Amino acid sequence: MEYTIEQLNGHIEGFYWFGKEDVRLTRLPASTFPRLRKDVAFLATNTAGGCIRFKARTSMIGIEIVMHPSRPYEKFSRAGQCGLDVYADGHYVHTFVPPRDGYFISVAETDGARSHDYSIYLPTYASLEIKSLCVDEDITPATKHRVTKPIVFYGSSITQGAYASRPGLAYPSILGRLLDAEIINLGFSGNGKCEPEVASLVSRIDAACLVMDAGGNLTAPEEEGIITVRYPAFLACVREQHPSMPILINNMQHIGAASWNTVFRRLCNRVRDAIKTTYETMLRSGDRNVHYTDGMDAIGPGDLDCTADGTHANDLGFSRYVSIMAPVLRRVLG
User: Fewer Cβ close by (within 10 Å): the C or N end of the chain?
Assistant: First the structure.
């Protein structure tokens, strides 16, 4: 059986606006792109966190896609940036790796002896069009998630998935499998700047929880102090629309350059202080649905082997992120 993108409506996760305006795989609605900064609009076309999810009994899964030109990243493998991961019942099966931009078609062998819930994780740092998905027999909806609403992650490059070795190992995707929840990945590499236009869009999502993993993109000298205004305003915008939704604030991890660059260390500390202050202010105001983890507990000054470049997490680093967030999310989501 062959399915087009239109026929996959109802099997697409991670794109909150999919099917409401069009069937483009964009993480923010395309109609808002003119109001967003150019870099945010471009990154919103990257399919991080997107997933095709279905149940089928099939001996193979075939995909036919067109990869759009992507920005090169020195520390990314092709699989990490542009791969598509196949999972069956939460277990890894295969990675499709388009060798170049443009047209790509491939087939993966799967277990045709019985039905499985399949998840195909889309690329973290690339854009694509799905021309067709092929399986032996009809697909049906996958088993419903235990968590009935999506978990939204907002942040920067690490949130988006840099530098996982493949898309299923970005920490939001791992948490989605552990918690049995749809995830919406709104990490924007270098551009998680807590802008009000983005806050307004995030506040429109009917979510089970917001994981706020932003801050690291507001450490430039020319942006000093912006975090103290934008960060609490972002959360206030979300809280206005969702008075009781759990919010998990994750503070900044250690960035290698802060070990020797005293100016950068001061800027990072200012961001960390602003994030912690926002959390404490929300608690003092009576908000009992705000929670806190510290990225330093995932990647601290002695943990740079958990990174690919002193900043961005590798697979070990992402497992550390999961280890600090999963217990809190399990508790707040019930």
Answer: C
What distance in Å separates the CA atoms of residue 167 and residue 161, rounded to the nearest whole number?
Answer: 7
Q: Are 299 and 251 in contact (CB under 8 A)?
A: no
Give residue-wise pLDDT tens across range 26-44. 999 999 999 999 999 999 9
Annotation: CATH topology of 2-36+46-134: Jelly Rolls (2.60.120)
Residue ranges of domains in the chain: 2-36+46-134, 151-333
What are the beta bridge partners of residue 153? 185, 211
Question: Which 3-state string (H, E, C) describes 222-243?
Answer: HHCCHHHHHHHHHHHHHHHHCC
Contact 81, 124 (CB under 8 A): yes
CATH class assigned to 151-333: alpha beta
pLDDT digits (tens, 9 = 90+) for 74-101: 889 999 999 999 999 999 999 999 999 9
Q: What SS3 state is found at 296? A: helix
